[in-house]
């Protein structure tokens, strides 16, 4: 279980990262929805999950590359907004949990349909 301070840090980063992205001129990432932040090793590393459902699968590496290029500006914004002396190193990943949950819902619907046909 994560400590309260780590959860608070993740919550704060969930607010500040989209704010930092909205100030950028790259239209691919300036309105990118951030779905979760997972801090590891204290505040040294953070995995930032974004919703890439608006992009095709072949566009995702370009989006991640653009996010990595903007990493310094995101860190500067976080440091200026929080007063921290150090900002986590961000790694960006496409959040596929929504697609997985859609698949699970489709499986449940299929099971329900099969049960109704058997009755």
TrEMBL record:
It is found in: Cytoplasm. GO terms for cellular component: cytoplasm. The keyword Nucleotidyltransferase does not apply. Pfam families: RBFA (PF02033). One of its GO terms (biological process) is maturation of SSU-rRNA. Keywords: Cytoplasm, Ribosome biogenesis. InterPro entries: KH_dom-like_a/b, RbfA, RbfA_dom_sf, Ribosome-bd_factorA_CS. The keyword Ion transport does not apply. Belongs to the RbfA family. Monomer. Binds 30S ribosomal subunits, but not 50S ribosomal subunits or 70S ribosomes. NCBIfam families: PRK00521.3-4 (NF001806), rbfA (TIGR00082). One of several proteins that assist in the late maturation steps of the functional core of the 30S ribosomal subunit. Associates with free 30S ribosomal subunits (but not with 30S subunits that are part of 70S ribosomes or polysomes). Required for efficient processing of 16S rRNA. May interact with the 5'-terminal helix region of 16S rRNA. This is Ribosome-binding factor A. The lineage of its organism: Bacteria, Pseudomonadati, Campylobacterota, Epsilonproteobacteria, Campylobacterales.
């Amino acid at each position: 279980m994560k400590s309260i301070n780590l959860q608070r840090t993740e919550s704060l980063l969930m607010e500040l990262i989209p704010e930092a992205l909205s100030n950028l001129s790259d239209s691919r990432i300036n309105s990118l929805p951030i779905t979760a932040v997972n801090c590891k090793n204290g505040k040294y590393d953070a995995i930032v999950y974004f919703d890439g459902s608006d992009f095709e699968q072949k566009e995702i590496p370009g989006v991640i590359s653009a996010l990595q290029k903007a990493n310094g500006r995101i860190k500067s914004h976080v440091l200026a907004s929080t007063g921290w002396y150090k900002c986590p190193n961000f790694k960006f990943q496409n959040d596929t949990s929504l697609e997985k949950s859609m698949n699970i819902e489709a499986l449940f619907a299929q099971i329900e349909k099969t049960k109704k046909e058997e009755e």
